[in-house]
Design a protein that fits this description.
There is one protein chain. The protein has 97 residues and is an alpha+beta fold. The chain folds into two domains: 43 residues; 34 residues, no CATH class. 37% of the residues lie in helices and 22% in strands. The protein contains two helices and three strands; from the N terminus they run ααβββ. The protein has a three-stranded antiparallel beta sheet, with no helix packed on it. Helix 1 runs antiparallel to helix 2. The two termini are 33 Å apart.
Length: 97
């Protein structure tokens, strides 16, 4: 939700800057233009990191058999997949029953 708000704000500021410059606003319109561009770029290219879950998901998820060591969190992780939604979740192997 916050991501959508920030993207909307970025588009609004970018549009305001472009429209202001087009209508002869000049230098003062560079602020909203630049800030809107930075908001959009920062939000679009923001990395999304999820922490590993401590319990296996139950609603339509099944283990894939994939296991790997997560060096960021220093734990072995098992991958769970929901074929209906395509979502993947990562569960700390010690929590898998």
């Amino acid at each position: 939700m916050l991501r959508s708000f920030v993207l909307g704000l970025g588009v609004l500021l970018l549009g305001t800057g472009v429209l202001g410059i087009t209508l002869g606003g000049g230098g003062p319109m560079l602020g909203p233009l630049i800030f809107g561009v930075l908001l959009l770029i920062g939000t679009i290219f923001e990395p999304h990191y999820k922490r590993n879950e401590s319990t296996p998901p139950s609603d339509g998820f099944a283990p894939t058999g994939e296991r790997f060591h997560d060096p960021n969190q220093n734990q072995t992780v098992e991958v769970w997949y929901n074929p209906t939604t395509g979502e993947r979740r990562y569960v700390a192997l010690g929590a898998v029953k």
